Amino acid sequence: MADTIVDDRAVFTVKGFDSLTYAPRGIEIILPNSSEKHYIPDVLEELKPKVGMTFDNMDQAFAYYCNYAAASGFGVRKGTDSKTNNGVIKLKYYLCSKEGFNQKKKVDTLEENAKQKVVRANFSKRTGCQAHIRVELVQDKWNIYKFVEEHNHFFVNEEDMHFLASSRKLTQLQKHMIQSMAKINIGPVRAFNVMRTIFGGFEEVGVSKNDCKNFKREINLFINEYDAEMMVGNLMKKKEHLPDFSCEYFTDEENCLVGLFWSDGESKRNYQVFGDIMSFDATYRSNRYSMVFVPFTGIDNHNNNVSFGAALLASETAETYKWLLRCFLKAFDPAMKKAIEDVFSGSRHRLCMWHVMHKLSTKVGVTLCNTTDFKQRICDIVWTDSLSPSEFEVGWHSVIQDFDLSDNNWLGDIYDMRESWIPAYYRDELMSGLMRTTSRSESENHFFGQVCNVRSTLLEFLTHFETAIESQRHNQRKNDHDTRYTRPQLKTDFVLEKQASQIYTKTLFLDVQVEIVGIEKCINVKLENIDGFTKFFIKDFDQLCNSYFEEEAIVKAGKKSRQCQNCKEYGHYASTCSKPPKKTGVNTKEKTFDTMSADS
Fold first, then answer.
1. For 194-250, what is each residue's pLDDT tens digit?
2. Residue 478 placed within a domain
3. Residue 104 pLDDT > 60, yes or no?
């Protein structure tokens, strides 16, 4: 059973609504001395090419024939040409895309031991159509010398014209959209899907997914040869024209890029304010050349990551890292107080906890991690800064013994390196919030993961990085705005809490508020003056444990620093505590705070 549907564009038959049979488009004719049907485009007369038409150049002639083909319903491609002895083109053919025939190719077979290479069967678009125009160069003008109007096939309906290659062309807007989306790591296929949604359908886009992919590939092919040169040139141009922009690079004896460092003025200003503590992480493979991406990161006044600069390294040697750190010193402050090895002699090398623990399931087995409490127990002693080194070691050996893992070489190796990554060994280090908690590490990995793509060119990587930094700075400004124009809800009548709400940023105040509320459960039992120290004995009614903090005068800075000697909260997070952590392993009824007088 079939229904016939008629509209003003085409007549076709629907058989069971499964297949469509289109009526031929165009004027059907039969040529003399031929029994085969041919077709002439049914278009306005002024659109048809005519012998004797003149154009200023070949491109104009080709564009005219393409417009005629688009109105008619067939595709166009460029044919052969003829040149003078001087290599100047004097004759050119523009053909119907169905001209000629495809060469025969072997098709797939089921023979397992086939000796010759086979290829998948493909339908041919060629029908041997003779329709074309021929243009010739006459006195610096291109004239249509011959025009064959008849085609041996019917034409494509208007709604299907976007399937013809010659009818598809990326507009400047579409090219701009593809390049702009690439800046945020959106590929050409996803960019096509976005355009399809915005424009209202596949046919409204006017191009295919492959067209978008080919456009991106052509750009990358051009970039590949000059990738490093273009990236360095881009950054050096910024150094020349932008105030406070720093860029350093070095190459090997073959003039290949080995190291590249850069930092802009905003990053330097962030360093001046938030540069007390800084880390750099060399665990990101950022591009198709496997260069290591090294971001320099600190913590801002909203307890979020803030970038001070970035680098790309082709090799990870001691000399390369020395070069990088010297570049950082040169860009920021030759007299830095916290200057790894002979460059940053006062610093301490620390492994990233998150990357170590991320390998746990792989190294000890998924079954052990998922079916027992092994992972929870190991995390309890690793992801905490409340344990002392001795308490950590006792806890570690207990877990290893309970699960019979003493023969696991990887666990043994990371235990031997415990001083380089376990928080218990950093209790006395000033960290100011840079301690690698799970959430902070995952946040940082997600942020820089958006930048790093193993298929990216260097130029693509740079645009991804700049987009990510722009987002980071926008969020920082938003947090500043929220702090200025909002007020938190106070939970006590303490003047201290009110003052803290006016001094701290919104994010940090919420942490401080918890400690201020905890003051209600603490009482000063007594104090003692011992060798210039004032020792406070504070009783905490909320829990049984022992802690104290020092308040040490820093004469040059004109201010005091204070630190709880049990949880080290001020040093790690730049805020004071009202009570000790919940799990310290200590069981006493009082906690003690030591304070050094400002005069000592």
1. 888 888 888 788 788 888 888 887 777 666 778 888 899 999 999 999 988 999 999
2. no
3. yes
User: In this model, does residue 6 exceed pLDDT 50?
Assistant: no
Same domain? 451 vs 527: no
Q: Give the C-alpha separation, 149 to 131, whole Å.
A: 6
Cα within 13 Å of Cα(230), Cβ side: 15
Report the phi/psi class of residue 16: left, alpha or beta, with left for phi > 0 and alpha for psi in -120 to 50: left
- Measured CA to CA, the distance from residue 148 to residue 48 in angstroms comes to 11
How far is the C-alpha of 95 from the C-alpha of 480, rounded, in Å?
64
Q: Which residue has the tokens 């190294």?
A: 363
Same domain flag for 342 and 300? yes
120/129 Cα distance (integer angstroms): 25
As a whole number, the mean pLDDT across the chain is 76
Residues in the chain: 600
As for how many domains the chain has, the answer is 5
* H or E element, residue 190: helix 188-199
Give the ranges where 438-565 is alpha helix by DSSP (H): 438-449, 458-485, 495-503, 506-518
Interacting residues of 408 by C-beta distance below 8 A, sequence separation 6+: 363, 364
SS3 527: strand
Note the pLDDT tens digit of each residue in 480-507: 999 988 999 999 988 999 999 999 999 8
Cβ atoms of 265 and 473 closer than 8 Å: no
Contacts 24+ apart (CB under 8 A), 290-293: 290/454, 291/458, 292/316, 293/448, 293/451, 293/452, 293/461
Asked, for residue 316, whether it belongs to a domain, the answer is yes
Of 428, 455, 487, the last residue of a domain is 428
Q: Given this model, what pLDDT does residue 143 score? A: 94
Assessment of whether the complete model's pTM goes beyond 0.90: no
pLDDT score recorded for residue 50: 93
Is residue 460 pLDDT above 80, yes or no? yes
Last residue in a domain, options 428, 453, 484: 428
* Per-residue tokens: 399: 């877990």
Cβ burial of 183 (10 Å; 0-12, 13-18, 19+) is middle
Asked whether residue 163 falls in the same domain as residue 267, the answer is no
Q: Is residue 479 part of a domain?
A: no
Q: Is 389 left (phi over 0), alpha (psi -120 to 50) or beta?
A: alpha
- Residues 390, 405, single domain; the answer is yes
The structure tokens 């990358």 sit at: 220
How far is it, in rounded angstroms, from Cα 74 to Cα 96? 7
> Tokens 């893992």 — which residue?
405
362 & 398 share domain: yes
185 and 142 fall within a common domain: no
* Structural domain that includes position 144: 2-103+124-167
Residue 114 forms part of a structural domain: no
Instruction: Tell me the pLDDT tens digit for each residue of 364-400.
Output: 888 888 888 888 898 888 877 778 888 889 999 999 9
Grade residue 55 by pLDDT with cuts at 50, 70 and 90.
very high
> Left, alpha or beta for 36 (phi > 0: left; psi -120 to 50: alpha)?
beta
> Both 180 and 248 in a single domain?
no
* 507 lies in the same domain as 420: no
How does pLDDT run across 314-331, given as a tens digit for each residue? 887 888 888 988 888 888
From residue 195, give the alpha-carbon distance in Å to each of 170, 202, 460.
12, 9, 21
DSSP letter, residue 535 = E
